[in-house]
Write a structure and sequence with these properties.
By secondary structure, the protein is α/β, with parallel strands linked by helices. The protein has 14 helices and nine strands.
Length: about 475
């Protein structure tokens, strides 16, 4: 609808989640710096596109906190995409082929290509950045043919395409279990599809949240799936046709420079409410097998028990799991659910394209307070993005320096495809590319920066060996 004068485009909307939200939620937010009156901008600006996280079930595009990025003369774009059952119901049918949320992301990136020039951005200078589920999305967008040509670089933080929660191995089973929690027992795939067509969205997202909270195997419920090729309609494009791990090993995808970021203690994706309500400490001691990641497949129950015991010895030695093993618990969950997949992506991507690897160590005081983790002194899951999109007031010089340093790293990469193109007061060390999987150079960020090699390598190699023996194959969804 046309308008005259200035249109105040400040609508903030959240896609349905946790029992509320709006279905009309596919909104794109654009932030561009106001040019200095003494300067006249003659060229379009590089564009950073941020894809939010939230385990594919929660989250919304940030609409504030861009100031420190905009100071570096870039355009920032954020957008919503469908999440939970609306975004990732995957039945392998024409009505529910799967990956609707990822296809929303593709549509947003295509819109940016067509229109960002009108907002002062450069359509051929787009870098995508995602955390958590957004990081999985970015990794998948690199590999998917649907993402080809829509961006020239990528930033991946606290997630990867090979994490146990990145792809649902049994999407029809997931849809069936959620339906059963609402006392619906489908007779066949058509009956199941009819249930989802007719159910109230708020009811679905409320139950989806409860279902998500019941999972302890590294899965999140509704998430990306491998779409079926059998009987697919010509007008339905497939986002994901093959296991991400297989695609990663083959390397048959578009090559772009990548900045990969992990936090020192990725297991801090757990919140204290989860930790207490799900009695992790007690059950991990008596039934550790219950917490093994879902991407492991065993021929016998005995094999499962043997591996569970080997993992307990590796992380805990002869100690009982309890109040004194909080850090070990967080290392176990962080390594198996997040960190190993990130390091595996870095190890494979560097063979084909420029990769810069960062450990975000700096905790600071920008994250929300959580009583359980008050004595943890290192950064947790998705901590880096909290220093990129800063909505809370900065109250000390250490946080200010960390925010300004991280903004310079990000915007350098957006503009010039590398985080330290020149040495500055904030970035006095040249950041090496990953060029050898045995050496695996990385930059450790603790407010200032330092170069290291082989981050958490003993733990990474342990999971290499585990997955070599027990990694399960992920197949396309096949409707019954």
């Amino acid at each position: 609808m046309p308008w005259s004068g200035v249109y105040v485009a400040n609508r903030t909307v959240q896609c349905p989640q946790c029992g509320y939200g709006e279905e009309d939620c596919l909104v794109i937010n654009i932030f561009t710096p106001i040019p200095d009156k003494r300067q006249r901008r003659t060229r379009p600006l590089p564009v950073l596109v941020y894809i939010h996280g939230g385990a594919f079930i929660r989250g919304t595009a940030p609409t504030s906190g861009m100031d420190y990025l905009l100071k570096h003369d870039i355009t920032v774009v954020t957008f919503n995409y469908r999440i939970g059952v609306l975004g990732f119901l995957c039945l392998g049918t024409e009505d529910a082929p799967g990956n609707a949320g990822l296809k929303d992301q593709v549509a947003a990136l295509q819109w940016i290509q067509r229109n960002i020039i009108n907002f002062g951005g450069h359509p051929r200078h787009v870098v995508i950045y995602g955390t958590d589920a957004g990081a999985v999305s970015v990794d998948l967008l690199i590999m998917s043919k649907m993402g080809a040509g829509l961006f020239k670089g990528a930033i991946i933080e606290s997630g990867s395409a090979t994490s146990p929660w990145s792809v649902d191995v049994d999407p029809i089973g997931t849809a069936t279990k959620l339906a059963e929690t609402l006392n619906f027992f489908p007779k066949d795939i058509d009956h199941l599809a009819e249930f989802y067509r007719n159910k109230i969205v708020d009811d679905l997202t409320s139950v989806n949240e409860l279902y998500f909270n019941s999972l302890n195997d590294g899965t999140v419920g509704f998430s990306p799936c491998i779409e079926t090729a059998n009987g697919a309609k010509p007008h339905i494009r497939q986002f994901l046709q093959e296991s991400p791990y297989d695609m990663l090993i083959k390397g048959k995808y578009e090559y772009v420079p990548v900045l990969i970021i992990f936090s020192s203690l990725e297991g801090l994706f757990l919140k204290s409410t989860q930790y207490y309500e799900q009695v992790f400490k007690e059950r991990m001691e008596t039934d550790f097998e219950y917490f093994l990641p879902a991407n492991l497949v065993f021929e016998t129950e005995e094999d499962k028990k043997v591996l569970a015991e080997a993992i307990k010895i590796f992380y805990y030695g002869n100690r009982s799991i309890g109040p004194d093993t909080l850090v070990e618990n967080l290392e176990y969950f962080g390594d198996s659910h997040v960190l190993h997949g990130i390091l595996k992506s870095a190890e494979q991507h560097y063979k084909r394209m420029p990769v810069y690897l960062m450990e975000f160590f700096y905790k600071g005081s920008l994250k929300k307070y959580d009583r359980l983790f008050e004595n943890i002194t290192v950064a947790g899951h998705s901590a880096a993005s909290e220093h990129a999109f800063v909505s809370a007031p900065i109250t000390n010089l250490e946080d200010m320096r960390a925010v300004e340093t991280f903004a310079e790293i990000l915007t350098n990469f957006v503009k010039l495809d590398q985080p330290t193109p020149r040495l500055t007061c904030l970035l006095p060390i040249s950041w090496p590319r990953v060029d050898n999987s045995q050496k695996m150079q990385y930059m450790r960020f603790d407010g200032s920066i330092m170069v290291g090699i082989r981050p958490h390598w003993r733990r990474k190699q342990f999971w290499d060996n585990v997955l070599k023996l027990y990694r399960g194959q992920i197949n396309p969804v096949e409707p019954c």
